[in-house]
Amino acid sequence: MLRKLKASIRAFLRKTPYKIIRAADYNRFEAIEETLRALKRRGYAPKVVADGGANVGSFSLLADEIFGPNLKIHMFDPQPACAPALESLATTKRVCVSRCSDEREERRKRAFCG
User: What are the angstrom distances between the C-alpha of 53 and each of 34, 67, 75, 89?
Assistant: First the structure.
């Protein structure tokens, strides 16, 4: 009974854009890229992307690559260790980095836009 159910679900999903993947094969960055590209194919063209917990800006770089030069990017991350990598990405006025730390020193240098 379970085999028939699984076979029916697989047959149904083959007719859709969805995939079944095993957890061991799962790469969330590939899934994010695939999702952003699918949104673009469907006509989605955001004017602004907010990358909360930007870390080193991987998501922002991917969004920029996919959605292009009219996109404004705001990256937020509280970790002082991530600031140099993020600030190096803020080379144009359309990319902005905001530090979210509560430390006094960080508050003085809270935002950096290219």
Answer: 20, 20, 8, 15
